[in-house]
Every structure is written in C-alpha cells, then in structure tokens.
Design goal:
There is one protein chain. The protein has twelve helices and ten strands. By secondary structure, the protein is α/β, with parallel strands linked by helices. The strands form two sheets. An eight-stranded parallel β-barrel has the order 1-2-3-4-5-6-7-10, surrounded by seven helices. The chain has a two-stranded antiparallel ribbon with strand order 8-9. The relative contact order is 0.15.
C-alpha cells in the first residue's frame, strides 16, 4: 500500500490504554504484525505506561523486534528514573519519546528542568492544560524555553474530557504560532468529527485536526481553523484534505506529529473508506504525496 505523506506514521499504537485495554502480550504481538504489514508506514511507536516497562522489556525480544521496539513512555515525575533505567538496559526498547504528565500540585518549571537534564532519552512531549487559562500560557512558554513538544488531550472516558472546537483551535493556533510540534491523545478514534452513538460523546476527527493544522500553518483565520474542526461531512472533509498541496500537507505534519490510538486498524479503515489510501491516491491526490 502506498502511503500519502499526510498519513505516514500518524498513529501511535496505544492499544493497551482505555478504551481498548488490550492485554500487553497480545498488543505487542499485534504491533509486530503491523510493522511487518503493508500498512507499516502508518504506524508510530508503541505507547506504554512507565509502570509496565519491565513487562514490555520481557516481551520485546529480538524475534519480534530484531532492531528493538520503538517506545513512547507515558510518565509522571516520580517515574523518570525508571524510564532512564529501562532505556539504559538490554537495548530491547528504543526510546522514541517520553510523554510527560506533570504533577499539577507542583510548579511546572522545576519538573521540566529535570526532563532537560543531559542524557534523557527520546523526544519529550509535555501534557499541557486546556487553553484560555494562565496555566496553559505558562506551560506553552516553558515548553518553548526547553525545546520540548506539546501533548494535547482531545478526549477520554467521560464527556468533560473532550475539549470544544474553540479550545482545540486555540491549542493548535498557539502551538503553530510558537513553532512547537504537538501530538494528540485520546478521543481521535475516527477520521471525522462525530457523536459516538454509545456514549453521546463529541469526538474530534483526526482528519479534522490535520486540516485545521494545515490551515493554521497557512495563516488562516481562527474561524477557518475552527470550521475545519467542526466539519462533520466525510466527503467534504476528504476533499479538503485531498486538495492540500504537498507543501501544506508536509507543514501540517511537521506541526501535528501523531496521535495515540487504541486501534491502528480503525483509522486505517476510515481512510480506506474515504478513498484516501490505495493505488488511486497516486493519481488523484498528488498533493498528499511526497
């Protein structure tokens, strides 16, 4: 399968997190299967909590991962020594990123100073508060100062965890204006914004986030960025993403690096159903390709 530039390594494999909660042995085996498949270019690192690094090391043998397993570790301040130790060990785990969840009860600056200490492995994403608050402005400034990246929480297991379009638009605009790449986590299960029938939760779509980021990078107005996040018509959204020139698609992905998903196959199936993958994209969607 030929992968457009806009979708390469877009989905980080967070299958062990809610709502998927896959057993770790199965998740590791399936991740190896993804990396050996025709959609390997779609897949980013395996996401794991710091408390499960020992289990993961035991499962990530050379038979499944000859060059080591690329891992993005979700960790709070207390877990950072364990993360360093795991990556300094057998070599089975290759540090892709650390997704840092700060302790809200402590000042953020000293916590990020610890992360900036020499020798810390991988890229650092910092989970930041919702926009429109002094905490968000401070977090953005500190992330910029340390040369880290942003992690934006776009959903969860309750309705209140899903930020509104205005909030996500402000996040994207702030990240783009500051020149800080970001990843998203939670809630982006499908390509297009929708109301989940089982829960009534308002889910953002990963194509909406991609298009909104492309518009922000191109200097669009806040209302145009918000409109991209609000679009619910699959065909209209697919047309808009397909029409992105190659340079704009590349700029969007430089900013919107990836998102964590408890399923790799669901977003892949969405893109296929929208006609955005497969041989036809080579001739019909030149703007999406390198």
């Amino acid at each position: 399968m030929s992968f457009p530039l806009a979708f390469r390594h877009l989905v980080d494999d967070a299958s062990v997190f809610p709502p998927g909660l896959a057993p770790l042995p199965r998740a590791v085996a399936e991740h190896a299967g993804h990396l050996a498949s025709g959609h390997a270019e779609f897949v980013g690192p395996f996401v794991i909590g710091a408390d499960r690094l020992g289990e993961l090391t035991a499962l990530a043998g050379p038979r499944l991962f000859p060059g080591g397993l690329r891992v993005s570790v979700v960790a709070g301040p207390a877990a950072l020594p364990a993360v360093r130790a795991a990556f300094a060990g057998t070599g089975r785990l290759v540090p892709a990123a650390v997704e840092f969840k700060p302790d809200a009860a402590r000042p953020l600056g000293p916590q990020l100073d610890d992360l900036a200490a020499p020798g810390f492995p991988g890229t650092v994403y910092v989970e930041v508060p919702r926009p429109g608050t002094p905490e968000w402005e401070q977090a953005l400034a500190l992330v910029v100062r340390h040369g880290f990246r942003l992690k934006l929480r776009t959903g969860g297991t309750e309705a209140a965890a899903f930020p509104a379009e205005d909030e996500v638009a402000a996040w994207i605009a702030g990240a783009v204006a500051a020149g800080v790449p970001f990843k998203c986590t939670a809630g982006l299960h499908h390509a297009v914004r929708h109301t989940a029938p089982a829960t009534g939760f308002e889910h953002h779509g990963f194509l909406n986030v991609l298009l909104a980021t492309a518009r922000a990078r191109a200097g669009a107005s806040p209302s145009d960025v918000r409109a991209a996040l609000a679009e619910r018509a699959p065909e209209a959204l697919a047309r808009a993403v397909t029409a992105l020139p190659a340079a704009e698609a590349a700029a969007a992905r430089e900013a919107f690096v990836s998102y964590g998903s408890c399923s790799v196959l669901e977003p892949l199936e969405d893109l296929t159903a929208l006609g955005l993958l497969g041989p036809s994209t080579a001739t019909d969607s030149e703007g999406l390709h390198a």
